[in-house]
Fold this sequence. Notes:
Organism (chain B): Geodermatophilus ruber
Domain FAD-binding PCMH-type (chain B): 1-178
Protein name (chain B): Carbon-monoxide dehydrogenase medium subunit
Strand content of chain B: 25-35%
Strand order of the largest sheet of chain A: 2-1-5-3-4
CATH class of the largest domain in chain B: Alpha Beta
Order of helices and strands of chain B: EHEHEEEHHHHHHEEEEEEEEEHHH
Structural class of chain A: alpha+beta
Oligomer: heterodimer
Helix content of chain B: 25-40%
Keywords (chain B): FAD, Flavoprotein, Oxidoreductase
Distance between the termini of chain B: 54 Å
Number of helices of chain A: 5
Largest sheet of chain A: 5 strands, mixed
GO molecular function, one term (chain B): FAD binding
Helix content of chain A: 25-40%
Amino acid sequence: MRDLHEITLTVNGREHTLAVEPRRLLVDVLREDLGLPGTHIGCEHGVCGTCTVLLDGASIRSCSTLAVQVDGRSVRTVESLASGPDLHPLQEEFWDKQGLQCGYCTPGMLMRAVEILEQEPDPTPEQVREEIASNLCRCTGYQYIVEAVLAAAPRLRGGQQWDPTAGTAATVPTEAKA
Amino acid sequence: MKPPPFRYSAPTTVSDAVALLVEHADDDPRVLAGGQSLVPLMNFRLAQPGHLIDLRRVTGLDTLRLEDDVLVIGAMVRQSTAERSPDVALAAPLLAEALGHVAHPPIRHSGTVVGSIAHADPAAELPAVALAADAEMVATGPGGARRIPAAEFFLGPFTTALEPDEILTEVRFPPFPGGHAFVEFARTHGNFAIVGVAALVALAGGEVTRAAVAVSGMGPTPLRLTAAEEALVGRAPGAAAIEAAVDAGTAGLAPAGDLHAGAETRIDIARACLRRGIEGALARALDRR
């Protein structure tokens, strides 16, 4: 039973039309069909958060979302953050503050942090701790992640270096294999 | 793991969605709203529907409105939308408070209020809130819509009074002029709670005139603790009334233990949550007068 459904997704500013089986998860379509493996797959039931992407600007779990559910909508993945060799301020601060060790949770952490700082551009450490609790990290103990998010906040408030609404990937995603 | 193959439809009207449920009745059809309970279950193949009927394109289901004093929430209203809604804060503050305990923001961006109630997880927050608030379930089937009181809706774990050809299209929360509190205990904030308590109390003339208390995680469904309510009504708000309600409310409880907490531990936690919930609701009711 191969029941294909045609969907249109805008991913990192680029529109794709794909034929997908309804059982395909958004994370698998991003990674396999669109060649964007930056979004990781962890627990596959919405707990760990490494698959977090932004859907029309709001964070969701791409492992607990069917691709057909987001037909016609706009997705941002971690690939949208860097601009060529220039890292996004959050990526630079994660690097600088050692906000990662194994790096498995990092794509989800970064996308959730983008949303946290869009909603509250000047958060307290307590707010960052509370909000980032949606994503699991088993290496860092969170301390350096919280520090990285707090360090990125004033740079993003300045806004001169990077336009968070541009949403265009630096690395152009490959066309759908369909 | 990944879901096994299934058929998928995204109808645009409730009647088409119901017709699909009827048409594919032999194919184990399931209704999909936000998918935050169903898709993980499908990933683990604990649920294997043959046909998924997605409500995302159905017009009119994503609205949240006040009908007189009754808050009406459609089947596709996301939890995060309800959480931020001034109408919910005003008309159903118990629901607003409980929503902050439902998983994490990325889950609430997709998950729906009504979907969580229809899923009927006995440990979940929103079924307990619906039960305490005397919400009415609007079930739409081939013959039209009928209303089911929350007290008659939850039949067992993940089992409700919905017929196989019915969709829970709306939940209606009546006003409660009084104080509210939602309290839960979870190992980690955002994880499934071990016990949750939803409490509503009204005061007049120095005594409790109305009380509604429901608990989650203490049985096969959320439970209304009528003995606790009876222990409160007619009493002056204070420690003696609260302790009487805690004793009465937990006296008949016989929860099943699991690896998260044994039965005795659950009763201890329920006592603490019940005490805090009733205290919180009484404090707000006193502020309100």
